Amino acid sequence: MSGEVPARVQAIYDEVLHRNPGETEFHQAVREVLESLAVVLDRHSEYTEMKTVQRICEPERQIIFRVPWQDDRGEVWINRGFRVEFNSALGPYKGGLRFHPSVNLGIVKFLGFEQIFKNALTGMPIGGGKGGSDFDPKGRSDAEIMRFCQSFMTELYRHLGEYTDVPAGDIGVGAREIGYLFGQYKRITNRYESGVLTGKGLGWGGALVRTEATGYGAAFFAEAMMDVRGESFDGRRVVVSGSGNVAVYGIEKVHQLGGTVVACSDSGGYVVDEKGIDLDLLKQVKEFERGRISDYAERRDSASFVAGGSIWDVPCDVAIPSATQNELDGDAAAVLGRNGCRYVVEGANMPATPSAVKAFREAGVLFAPGKAANAGGVATSALEMQQNASRDRWTFEHSEARLADIMRDIHARCHETAEEYGSPGDLVLGANVAGFIQVAEAVHAHGLI
Ligand code: GLU
User: Fold this and answer.
1) For 290-326, what is each residue's pLDDT tens digit?
2) Secondary structure of 206-231 as H, E, C letters
3) pTM score, two decimals?
4) Mutate to test the pocket of ligand 1, among 83, 88, 107, 115 (most ligand atoms within 8 A of CB)
5) Which residue(s) pair with 96 in the sheet?
6) CATH of segment(s) 213-373
7) Does the active-site annotation cover 275?
8) Is CATH 3.40.50.1440 correct for 59-193?
């Protein structure tokens, strides 16, 4: 872990461990927040009296359900579905759905817990939640994906609503899946309730820039970090792990801001492309063909593919881990530091392990946690809800300008809070404290519920 649990919050952490056995990612996410909160509890005795931290660590509701479906050959499969409605102090539960074989309750709770603070930092009226399934979409036909989504929604619909709980995508869930989920919700409820899901198709209630928002937002956040130091993306070498939605649009925006992304990856390995990643080719391979990153290297002379291995061996000035949780460990962090990396900005949720975060701190590498840096996705989901509620449709330029403002505001808030609480430059502390206080104040105002 990245540090000692301060004595003030040790008992709270012990209770979380005791009540949630085996949920290691959830423990990790809670611990990271608790490490930042001792300074807050010193200033706010009411949070201790009212057990505000303990209440925020306990989800308001956890739903686990069976998802039966049939594949194209007629074989029956049983998956498990989850929705953790973590906190609704600031608005309806909001957060994505993840379809990946690694999904279990601990993963969904870690994601839902982070989402509470992330959503608070956006300044938009959204609470925190997360869901998903251990269903593996890899290699599945369109028809199989549709049947799975329909079965999943047949249970989940009763828990959703534009004022109750509003899912979106995450790993394994994009516009196609949101379409099938929305169709089934509409069919069961007999309501065209646009605001019940975000990340919808552009022709039927979706918002411009939502697809690009998480990646663009992470790049805007990195730009804001550089800006306060009088620096910019100009001429910088950047490595972005992953090649999903966050990575692709992170790369696009880094290039527009003057940086060069020289490597990206998928679960099979990574590509290095000294000329800079060719975004059209990457989109063709990963988005349209749903292929492998090795196919990219085969079609591009300047690129080489490394099977397995660590993408963090590629020297860079800026690293944007955008694949998945705990993909960047202490050893990789040490290599990045030795190679002169100055900025690490989390595009994914919790991609850096606690020992990596500790290594960055010790080496003076500037680090931005995902709950701040990747909040652009969910912030733009809130903009989609706003457009749905007013039956309006904004231009790409207007939406992108709103996103850029939101990311700059989040950075400023984290930066200023870190200073105010005696840890200048520590964006982990700044994000945790600023997000927590906003949620805690609302929890407090609503009484003991
Ligand atoms: N899954 C995304 C996240 O991690 C987006 C959630 C949303 O748009 O509701 O924040």
Assistant:
1) 899 999 999 999 999 999 999 999 999 999 999 999 9
2) CCCCHHHHHHHHHHHHHHHHHHCCCC
3) 0.97
4) 115
5) 168
6) 3.40.50.720
7) no
8) no
